[in-house]
Specification:
The chain is α+β, with helices and mostly antiparallel strands. The chain has one domain (about 5-180). It contains 3 helices and 9 strands. A 9-stranded mixed β-sheet has the order 2-1-7-4-5-6-3-8-9, with helices on both faces.
Length: about 200
């Protein structure tokens, strides 16, 4: 199955124009049929003072059969790793006044994702030309303090194979500019006391 759409969003801002060409090619080659759910990692480089909200990293996969009209959807929550140390050497370099947050699929969602993968494999075998799908990863952020003036830049990274380094998905997205262009009145909400 070719992955027809891969989209990473943070707080509703799409960064398609910021995806490097090499990453766009890599994203098109991603195969949700064969990716090991335990190996999937998302990394986000954020300015200090911004965090990803608890339950704020979510992956959605949709599988479709155009010949039968069947659709299967799955929504999978990511959990933040307690330590990013093991992944820090895999192509992730922090910049001044930034930090990384790294996420993996929640254990509770592993079995559901594997079941959806099996359905997708069956459909692909039955109807190679009519089976397709999409994958999106949505990341919702919040702030722990008042943000300084100027650009608020984030980058996102993805890894589906532990033998390979992370690769850039969205590079240097300025949230403040993106929100201003969209007519948003605020850039990020304050984190709740339990936000993670």
């Amino acid at each position: 199955m070719r992955l027809f759409a891969v989209l990473l969003i943070i707080t509703g801002v799409a960064g398609c124009s910021t995806i490097p060409l090499s990453s766009a090619l890599k994203l098109r080659q991603l195969n949700p049929l064969t990716a090991d759910p335990k190996a999937i990692r998302i990394a986000v480089r954020l300015p200090d003072g911004i965090r990803v909200r608890e339950d704020g990293a979510v992956m959605e996969i949709t599988a479709r059969r155009t010949d039968t009209g069947l659709t299967e959807k799955g929504r999978f929550v990511f959990r933040q790793q307690t330590s990013a140390t093991a992944d820090a050497a895999d192509g992730l370099l922090a910049e001044a006044d930034t930090h990384f947050e790294i996420f993996r699929i929640a254990d509770d969602d592993m079995a559901r994702l594997r079941r959806l993968q099996e359905t997708m494999k069956v459909w692909k075998a039955e109807a190679p030309d009519d089976a397709g799908g999409s994958l999106s990863i949505q990341i919702s952020g919040c702030r722990t303090a008042k943000l300084p003036p100027g650009p608020v830049v984030i980058s996102t990274f993805l890894r589906t194979d532990p033998a390979e380094p992370f690769f850039t998905v969205m590079r240097n997205v300025d949230l403040r500019s993106a929100f201003n262009e969209g007519g948003q009145a605020h850039i990020l909400p304050l984190c709740d006391s339990g936000a993670g």
